[in-house]
Amino acid sequence: MNPNPNLTPANHPKVSFGKVGVLLVNLGTPDGTDYWSMRRYLAEFLSDRRVIEWSRLYWYPILYGIVLNKRPQKVGKAYEEIWNKDRNESYLRTYTRSQGELMAERLKDLPNVVVDWAMRYGKPSIAERIDALKEKGCERIVLFPLYPQYAASTTATVNDKAFEHLMKLRWQPAVRTVPPYHDDPAYIEALANSVRQTYARLDWEPEMLVASFHGIPQSYFKAGDPYYCHCQKTGRLLKEALGLNDKNFMVTFQSRFGPEEWLQPYTDKTMEKLAEQGIKRVAVMNPGFVSDCLETLEEIAGEAGEIFQHHGGEKFVHIPCLNDSEDGMNVLEKVVRRELQGWA
Ligand SMILES: C=CC1=C(C)c2cc3[nH]c(cc4nc(cc5[nH]c(cc1n2)c(C)c5CCC(=O)O)C(CCC(=O)O)=C4C)c(C)c3C=C
Ligand SMILES: [Fe+2]
Ligand SMILES: [Fe+2]
């Protein structure tokens, strides 16, 4: 029986269908470097329970009473140093957009695939882009959190946010979430190539290569987060691919926040230590970041280099992230094509 006799094939509302969406999602970024843009962004980021796991009763007074009064100014200044002035946005957004556009080009042989990109915090939001994909007829979506190593505070929160939006939809698309690819040979080879390419441009030879990953509190690791192990595996495979050993390669962790102990060794302390041990020439890379951003351009290319030189180091080079390079896109494309199997 037709539940609505007025609904005939001729006047059925237009429905788009038959497409598969690929949604690339990175962390996010403020809209500007001014106090209010920074505050809005940090408030959203630091209210996320996957990022700060402390009781809200304890955390919110600190967040709203201290952190959101002081940090927006301080971090806004840091963002200003690395802002993409041509597009008036951060490089994280510039590279993520470019990765989306290049991915669409690369998947042209799959005419039913639509590629889009979003940010976990700030704009464009995951909800907005899921709606846009649905509008274009995507009944299936490959949701790709752009993190090679899994962490609850990055990968899981992207997935949570997407499913939170799906909870509101009458007609949900089918969703596949992309697993971590920390040990994918294409990823390791692309990282190794990026090291070789940077070294080829230098007129000096680094004595030590430091692979610096974003840290997480040790308590998250003890609670079962595999992030530390994923970082260590990426590090080991990269060390082997480059023919290095424990005397000229190491894994460190950066960007600690708050009073807790984070994963160690810390990158900034390591810079001091290496210089004090008499190491004069160091290269640092950030294998866990798919795109250069505040944490790589300011904290590593800027600050870590200064710390090293301040303590007696002589030569320092930051190896760029894979960004939207040919090699970087090869990695993302390989992962996406694998996850599209049976769908596209
Ligand atoms: C407890 C706080 C934080 C955890 C845990 C955390 C994990 C984590 N973050 C990234 C990647 C990025 N973080 C970035 C910025 C950033 N991270 C935190 C805090 C935690 N991150 C803060 C407060 C900030 C903002 C800047 C600041 O106030 O210091 C960025 C850069 C974004 C940009 O626009 O450039 C990235 C990328 C990972 C991979 C990770 C856990 C594995
Ligand atoms: Fe972070
Ligand atoms: Fe930082």
Account of the 3D structure:
Keywords: Cytoplasm, Heme biosynthesis, Iron, Lyase, Metal-binding, Porphyrin biosynthesis. Catalyzes the ferrous insertion into protoporphyrin IX. Pathway: Porphyrin-containing compound metabolism; protoheme biosynthesis; protoheme from protoporphyrin-IX: step 1/1. It comes from Neorhizobium turbinariae. The protein is of the alpha/beta class. It folds into 2 domains: 19-180 and 327-340, Rossmann fold; 185-319, Rossmann fold, CATH 3.40.50. It contains 11 helices and 8 strands. Helix 5 links the parallel strand 3 (138-145) and strand 4. Helix 6 packs antiparallel against helix 11. Residues 27, 29, 46, 51-52, 71, 75, 90, 92, 147, 151, 153-154, 214, 216, 227, 255, 257, 288-289, 293-295 line the site of the ligand C=CC1=C(C)c2cc3[nH]c(cc4nc(cc5[nH]c(cc1n2)c(C)c5CCC(=O)O)C(CCC(=O)O)=C4C)c(C)c3C=C.
